[in-house]
Design goal:
The complex is a heterodimer of chains A (about 325) and B (about 400).
Chain A: H1 2-18, E1 30-33, E2 39-42, E3 45-47, H2 60-64, E4 67-68, E5 71-74, E6 80-97, E7 100-107, E8 115-119, E9 123-130, E10 139-140, E11 160-167, E12 172-177, H3 183-188, E13 192-198, E14 207-216, E15 226-229, H4 235-238, E16 241-243, E17 249-255, E18 262-267, E19 272-276, E20 285-287, E21 289-293, E22 297-302, E23 308-313, H5 317-321, E24 325-330
Parallel strand pairs in A: 4-8, 6-9, 8-13, 14-17, 16-24
Antiparallel strand pairs in A: 1-2, 5-6, 6-7, 9-11, 10-12, 12-13, 14-15, 17-22, 18-21, 18-23, 19-20, 19-22, 23-24
Chain B: H1 2-30, E1 46-54, E2 57-64, E3 70-77, E4 80-82, E5 84-87, E6 91-92, E7 97-103, E8 112-118, E9 123-128, H2 139-161, H3 164-168, H4 172-204, H5 211-236, H6 240-271, H7 275-300, H8 307-318, H9 320-330, H10 334-360, H11 368-385
Antiparallel strand pairs in B: 1-2, 2-7, 3-4, 3-6, 3-8, 5-7, 8-9
The chains are: A mainly beta (about 325), B alpha+beta (about 400).
Chain lengths: ~325, ~400
């Protein structure tokens, strides 16, 4: 009796410990080519940050050249009125890298929010609705009245409303973001977007695009786990941005990266004219490498002479190896 | 007859009813539709158990040691994202393990940190002090470990046995003193072994496995089992001669299990690339283990010298160091290592208890030579242990 009790206990203990080791392995080997070019043969699965179209909740392809000009009407004095409706939420789970889910806080459902674009002198009205569970605001960079600054006029949770009204001024590439404390938390979760003011005399015809340099601290240790141009790590490396040779390309770039002191932008096989903040029509530099602090932004203009694949990435290579890397495919 | 049957049924029922009620309560608390425990957020937890450097890949063994299922989303080396394969798949149920294979041209002797990110974005990391190629069992390596095991285990124990004639010719009081030295050595070794097991448990085993309690459970169980066996063996032994051989045998078995643990430490240190550490381990254990021969020789010292038996006991005590080195170097598992060390500690305490019992028949348990001997034994072990 006692011996058998001992034996049963021992056998159950042994099975309990052996169980985890028993795996449901399938023996069929597959070959994977990883994004760094390494070849792996495995009977298991591949862990490679290759974002496939099916799982994208935010589409960097679409965001890249998607400019929102608002609902346009002409006022009595002949000026253009542009009205936008922006809804803030803070309850969405977003797959920011394959298999990694993060609670993103969004303007109109995406990180970054929509790119708001107007011409110098237009009147902009942003109807802001806060459907989040926390107070949020919209703070626009640019010239406007103090009460339109989105800092002290806190918009309450669960349906709070506010209409921001200001002139599109000055010309340049700017940004907007939530300005509720704790600020770092509200920004790093994704409440930001790009705001562009075009000069009355339009800039030369070009292939225009927006690249927001951002990152995500998914384990909340005040260090970014992922870096990207337009949110999804490595996205444009696997889905190169297609541009034409001998065609002017204009990139509106905004650095909104939290936690790190600097970010930078390096272009391969070419140099660009750089217009800091896009406020002057004379470039501040002709270079292939600019350094940006948080909130710094500018316009880059370049033309490729030779076709092929060209990298662009943070020359802070740590950021590049954590996702802030992409390709231009020149045809 | 009828009533005897019903009373038997009653007994069985009274044994089962509490279990049924317990099951019902667990079902009520955790079962479907229950919101009793629906508070707090369970956080994922994984443990990186092994990191091996194989060819142009880094192999990482990971186990889900948290309260909920997880899926592994990403691997990194030195905090830089790397593509990898995971076998059998990325989904890990509780306590399930998987192997992550990261193609990486690693450099020998450089430190690496390996990180794994799970589905909620939490990154778990583990470091290696110096990358060294994973040890593949080859004839050279097997014999290399065998030679180290021989140096550490067999030779020092056999040298220690040479004290036999020295002990054999001494008075009863002095003899008691030397037996007590043995007891001191053993108590020290037992504590040392437990410490080693606890160290492995805290460094390499996830908290979910309750490593400290595993050490306690295995140590006490093996102590009781071996105590029972040795009592039987000694009570069956007819002569004083065979009694002393039986005790020496138990001492040898206990020390053998302890030396298995030492071999394990050396093999694992070499396997983990901590070569400098293992050099010190080897020198330290060699000096340390010479004293173990004394422990085996002492109980037999008042008998006629039987070189063959003594040598055999020396082998029983020393040879496990070789097996330990093989195990530690080639198939290291923290869980198995803790069990082996726990058994070793139980065995050693059992032997110490047996010798104390044995000497008590001749005189008071804690006579002057006894107290002095235990103290000397422990101090000698402490001093030689500083060398490791």
């Amino acid at each position: 009796m006692m011996i058998s009790a001992l034996a049963v206990t021992a056998i159950i203990a042994a099975l309990y410990l052996a169980y985890p080791a028993a795996s449901d392995a399938n023996s069929e080997e597959k070959v994977f080519l990883t994004h760094t070019g390494a070849v792996v043969r495995t009977s298991g699965e591949i862990l490679d940050p290759v974002y496939t179209a099916q799982t994208v909740e935010f589409d960097p392809e679409k965001y890249l050249r998607d400019f929102q000009y608002g609902r346009v009407s002409t006022m009595e004095d002949g000026r253009t009125l542009r009205e936008f409706t922006i809804v803030a939420r803070d309850d969405q789970m977003m797959e920011i890298s394959p298999g990694v889910f993060y609670n993103a806080w969004t303007f109109n459902g995406t990180v970054p929010g929509p790119t708001i674009r107007a011409t110098e002198g237009d009147l902009i009205k942003v109807h802001f609705i806060n459907n989040g569970s926390k107070p949020h605001t919209m703070h626009f960079h640019g010239i406007h009245k103090a009460e339109m600054d989105g800092v002290f006029e806190i918009v309450g949770a669960n349906g709070g409303r506010f209409t921001y009204e200001f002139d599109a001024d000055p010309v340049g590439v700017h940004l907007y973001h939530c300005h509720v404390m704790p600020l770092e938390e509200h920004i790093s979760h994704g409440l930001y977007g790009v705001y562009i003011v075009d000069p009355k005399e339009p800039r030369p015809e070009a292939d225009e695009m927006v690249l927001v340099l951002n990152g995500f601290d998914t384990d909340f240790d005040m260090e970014n786990n992922f870096y990207a141009a337009n949110t999804i790590p490595f996205y444009y490396q696997h889905h190169p941005i297609q541009i034409k040779k001998d065609n002017l390309v204009r990139v509106y770039t905004v650095n909104i990266l939290e936690f790190d002191q600097i970010n930078n932008f390096h272009l391969h096989g070419n140099l660009y004219y750089y217009y800091p903040t896009g406020t002057y029509s004379i470039p501040g530099a002709y270079t292939d490498m600019i350094t940006l602090s948080q909130g710094e932004r500018g316009i880059m203009e370049f033309t490729y002479t030779y076709p092929g694949k060209y990298l662009f990435h943070a020359h802070k290579t740590e950021f590049a190896e954590k996702g802030w890397v992409g390709l231009f495919l020149v045809t | 007859m009828e009533s005897e049957k019903t009373s038997r049924v009653k007994v069985v029922a009274s044994g089962i009813i509490p279990l049924v009620l317990l099951g019902a309560m667990i079902f009520y608390i955790f079962g479907p539709g229950s919101d009793l425990l629906d508070f707090g957020t369970p956080l994922p937890n994984i443990t990186i158990e092994r990191i091996d450097f194989v060819g142009s890949e880094i192999h990482v063994t990971v186990r889900n040691t948290g309260p909920i299922d997880v899926s592994i989303a990403q691997a990194d080396v030195n905090d830089r994202i790397q593509p990898a394969a995971i076998e059998p798949d990325r989904f890990l149920a509780r306590f399930e393990a998987a192997k992550v294979r990261i193609p990486y041209s690693w450099n020998e002797a450089e430190p690496y940190e390996i990180g794994l990110t799970v589905n909620d974005g939490t990154r778990f990391a583990s470091s290696v002090e110096a990358a060294a190629p994973a040890l593949k069992p080859s004839i050279e390596l097997v014999s290399y470990f065998a030679i180290i095991g021989t140096y550490v285990g067999i030779i020092p124990v056999l040298i220690g046995l040479l004290w036999f004639p020295f002990i054999a010719k001494m008075s009863q009081a002095k003899y008691t003193f030397f037996l007590a030295v043995t007891v001191g050595l053993l108590i020290f070794l037992g504590i040392d072994t437990i410490e080693e097991a606890l160290e492995i448990s805290s460094e390499r085993l996830s908290g979910a496995f309750n490593g400290q309690l595993l050490v306690a459970t295995v140590t006490i169980t093996s102590f009781l089992a071996l105590y029972y066996v040795s009592e039987k063996m000694i009570s069956r032994a007819t002569s004083h001669l065979s009694k002393s051989i039986a005790i020496s045998l138990m001492v040898a078995v206990g020390i053998g299990l302890h030396n298995f643990g030492e071999g394990l430490a050396i093999g694992a240190a070499i396997g983990l690339g901590e070569v400098a550490l293992s050099t010190f381990l080897i020198i330290g254990f060699t000096i340390h283990n010479t004293t173990e021969g004394l422990a085996i020789a002492a109980p037999m010292a008042k008998q006629r010298l039987m070189i063959g038996r003594l040598a055999a006991l020396g082998m029983i005590a020393g040879a496990p160091a070789i097996f330990g080195a093989w195990f530690g170097g080639f198939v290291y598992s923290p869980y198995a290592a803790i069990i082996f060390l726990g058994v070793g500690a139980g065995a050693i305490f059992q032997v110490a208890a047996a010798i104390l019992n044995w000497t008590r028949k001749d005189q008071k348990t804690f006579s002057a030579p006894m107290v002095a001997g235990i103290a000397v034994g422990m101090i000698v072990m402490y001093v030689t242990s500083i060398l490791t």
